[in-house]
Amino acid sequence: MSNYEPRPKVCLFCKENQEVDFRDANILKKFIRISGGIESRRRTGLCAKHQRKASKAIKTARQMAILETKVK
Predict the structure, then answer these.
(1) Is this model's pTM higher than 0.85 or not?
(2) pLDDT tens for residues 44-56?
(3) What sections of 1-72 are H helices per DSSP?
(4) Are 23 and 30 in contact (CB under 8 A)?
(5) In CA terms, which of 45, 56, 57, 65 is 20 to 30 Å from 2?
(6) DSSP 3-state helix, strand, coil percentages of the chain (rounded to 5)?
(7) Which residues contact 20 (CB under 8 A, 6 or more apart)?
(8) Torsion of Cα atoms, 17 then 18 then 20 then 26, to 10°
(9) Which domains does the chain have, with CATH numbers?
């Protein structure tokens, strides 16, 4: 057994008392892989509620051409 204990991940939006907005591309880029896919909850540390809102916001931002499909 190792002494490794994973650090508890805290939801970014809950911590800062902030809402998910599809117009805020800089924050949404944090939740997109290099290949263009949406990161999972395990990787992002978001709660279920904000993960659903973030994925919907990313999809909306892509439709409105605010976000590119692939992040450079």
Answers:
(1) no
(2) 999 999 999 999 9
(3) 12-15, 25-28, 41-44, 48-63
(4) no
(5) 45
(6) 45, 5, 55
(7) 13, 50, 53, 54, 57
(8) -130
(9) 12-63 (4.10.640.10)
